[in-house]
From TrEMBL, chains A, B:
Record-listed NADPH binding positions: 107
Catalytic activity: L-homoserine + NAD(+) = L-aspartate 4-semialdehyde + NADH + H(+); L-homoserine + NADP(+) = L-aspartate 4-semialdehyde + NADPH + H(+)
UniProt superkingdom: Bacteria
Pathway where it operates: Amino-acid biosynthesis; L-threonine biosynthesis; L-threonine from L-aspartate: step 3/5; Amino-acid biosynthesis; L-methionine biosynthesis via de novo pathway; L-homoserine from L-aspartate: step 3/3
Keyword NAD: yes
UniProt keyword list: Amino-acid biosynthesis, Metal-binding, Methionine biosynthesis, NAD, NADP, Oxidoreductase, Sodium, Threonine biosynthesis
Keyword Plastid attached: no
Record-listed L-homoserine binding positions: 192
Organism: Streptomyces calidiresistens
Protein name in UniProt: Homoserine dehydrogenase
BP term (GO), one: methionine biosynthetic process
Role description: Catalyzes the conversion of L-aspartate-beta-semialdehyde (L-Asa) to L-homoserine (L-Hse), the third step in the biosynthesis of threonine and methionine from aspartate.
Length: 430, 430
């Protein structure tokens, strides 16, 4: 039953995602109206370059004055797909002030300023939806915020950056080094010309902050997320992972401490067993594991980026925001009541794979083992390989606090018999 | 901010799922109140056997008069976890009439009478939620109803029955026959004493009807779902699947026809490639693939049954229904506006694996191939195996309508040189 007045949507940004949103709003107008209970119309499209041809976007809707579009009082929902902090933040503030609900795909802004955005939405009685900000088309935030609202989430572990997964997948399957795999990713359009945000883990860290906040009903800032990129992962690391039945993935990991009194959030490369469902996530796909008290282990898998998949998530939110406008309802607001502190990385407890270059002489293993024991880090397995008077020692530990492992490595570096620490990588997913 | 009056919940049924719901409502009362914005209290628990001890359920709340509990006008949300058609249907009707919203895990009732339940909810301005009815703890219905509300779903393909997946997994890993694997499933509590609903596919068919209706915004009744169980799957079928790089799964498959003018829903055993993500779903786990125009391929994975996982889904819905009561909002109602007809099984187009016992003499293959050609069913591969004057012929077809395949098999059965049709199985997931 479609009877109400048409709802008006302002589209802020018309790039890869925005142009798909505009296209789908036009081609799917009939379905959207039926699902919302009212017709929905594109009232304006703010762009930077008005001269560029945009298929399916009526030219008369295009404007370069995004602020004026956001300020229009006849707009029901503003869709922000510009990205970055400014002008996105100001435009969203303007839209809320003008009475609109906001749908955004902006992970950076949510991670930096989520609570302020929620407060604006609350103040103006509007909705804030941002499913597309994490893991593209994969329904993940709504399940966490709503489907699991009666459960206790203990852990979120996921591949949330497609570029780095593509690079690691190529290194794994072809034996290529990091540089070569990055070049391939760039050539195929999976990596941007400046890949820093992806390969240094900034993109994944923003998503980890958002996920941790939602999963644990607390506030986690981008600065709270421990971050290591994948630029130092070598072909040797991947071969070494393979020898122990593992593969290397760049993971975002959000955990509630065992005592329930703090949370942690981190992004770093890690080895995971080939038998773990995340190990078989190939190419630029994303997948997120969620562990909850009652639900057990859930996994969500799908395309983590791209214009159409991200637009699918934006439109799902747009339908929700529009339905609420029609019925006078409100979607869930911020849920940060647990106010759990974010513990430093040193308190994270996990396993480690450490590769050492050592002198090939008797007593080295015993000396190294003593250092681990001194720092209370228990060793699971050791593998020694000799070559030309040098030897390598690969140690895999049991679970230990990150601080204890760091102290162990510092002491190891000081030993005469240890020529170097070739690599340190965490082992997850067991 | 928790300020509103307490919300009252009637729990109708206190078996495996209900007792977990009661436990979680008590132990998680603080979290639930914070997430809902009002305290929530268990106002009554309807049971059949009041003498049974129920840990965590205050005895004074227990009643055998379910109808009276459902009729109480102070109840905000009724949770129905009795299962089956009656008395569940009457109790839900009573609860709606008394002004309550309803959360249910009742797949049989939803598949049989979903539209009537929705109509009651609509009439009384109440909510109807039933995430737990399909795939237990896995958030699946909310993502389909809400996250993908701006997309066009073309296909839902899933393992939605844990018992049969456990049986097939055991047959696959141990080489056991169906009877032996069923006995193991029964001994371990994965199969009920009367396993008919699971092994004959009734349970999965009810879920397929629900999924198809939601995915395609139409009405699909249980009777519309083509259903074949797994009782005729043999160890030979599984070995044969393995030889072509496949495994056998009992799948629920809902599809929109290529022309968009009809839908189909079916449950049957099928071969799927080992490389397909559903192939690695082991034991009693469930997983559902969703293919949508813009989102692409999504997968949802997790525990499909069990008291605590199902209770997690029920509580998620309970939080949603309670939030709506607090804010005066309504969740999404029925969306069946496309009114797409359900096409018969004969119109389903897929691939087939057919195993024939034939006479071991020249010309048989040519004769058999001619029958396929006569019915316009194109052959992909043929494998011949001779043994003691008899031979077996394994034919894998390209995509063809089910009716054409059935006619082909009928003709084959009439050939002198065909001693028997050992098995016919569809090949999916490519």
């Amino acid at each position: 039953m479609v009877s109400a007045r048409p709802l008006k949507v302002a589209l802020l940004g018309c790039g890869v995602v925005g142009s798909q949103v505009a296209r789908l709003m036009t081609t799917h107008a009939h379905d959207l109206a039926a699902r919302i209970g009212a017709p929905v119309e594109l009232a304006g499209v703010a762009v930077r370059r008005p001269d560029r041809l945009r298929e399916g976007v009526p030219p008369e809707l295009v404007t370069t004055d995004a602020a004026a579009l956001a300020a229009r009082e006849d707009i029901d929902v503003a869709v922000e797909v510009i990205g970055g902090i400014e002008p996105a933040r100001s435009l969203i503030a303007t839209a809320f002030e003008a009475g609109a609900s906001v749908v955004t795909a902006n992970k950076a802004l949510l991670a930096e300023d989520g609570p302020a955005l929620y407060a604006m939405a609350e103040k103006h009685g509007a909705d804030l939806y941002y499913e597309a900000a994490v893991a593209g088309a994969i329904p993940l935030l709504r399940p966490l915020r709503e489907s699991l609202a009666g459960d206790t989430v203990n852990r979120v572990l996921g591949i949330v950056n497609g570029t780095t997964n593509f690079i690691l997948d190529r290194m794994e399957t072809s034996g290529a080094g990091y540089g070569e795999a990055l070049a391939e990713a760039t050539a195929l359009g999976y990596a941007e010309a400046d890949p820093t945000a992806d390969v240094e883990g900034f993109d994944a860290a923003a998503k980890a902050a958002i996920l941790a906040g939602i999963a644990f009903h607390t506030r986690v800032r981008l600065d709270d997320v421990h971050r290591e990129g994948l630029t130092e992962v070598t072909a040797a690391d991947i071969a070494s992972a393979r020898r122990m039945g593992c593969t290397v993935k760049l993971l975002a990991i959000c955990e509630r401490a065992a005592d329930g009194r703090s949370v942690t959030a981190r992004v770093h490369p890690a080895m995971i067993p080939l038998t773990h469902p995340l190990a078989s996530v190939r190419e630029a796909y994303n997948a997120v594991f969620v562990e909850a008290d009652s639900a057990g282990r859930l996994m969500f898998y799908g395309p983590g980026a791209g214009g159409a998949p991200t637009a699918s998530a934006v439109l799902g939110d747009l339908v929700a925001a529009c339905r609420n406008k029609v019925t006078g309802a409100r979607g869930p607001g911020e849920s940060a009541y647990t106010q759990l502190p974010v513990a430093p990385m040193g308190e994270v407890v996990t396993r480690y794979h450490i590769s050492l270059d050592v002198a090939d002489k008797p007593g080295v293993l015993s000396q190294v083992a003593a250092v681990f024991a001194d720092h209370d880090v228990s060793i699971d397995t050791v593998r020694q390989q000799g070559k030309d008077g040098e030897a390598s020692l690969v140690v895999v530990t049991h679970r230990a606090p990150d601080a204890a492992l760091s102290a162990t490595v510092d002491t190891l570096r000081g030993l005469d018999t240890v020529r170097g620490v070739a690599s340190i990588m965490r082992v997850e997913g067991e």
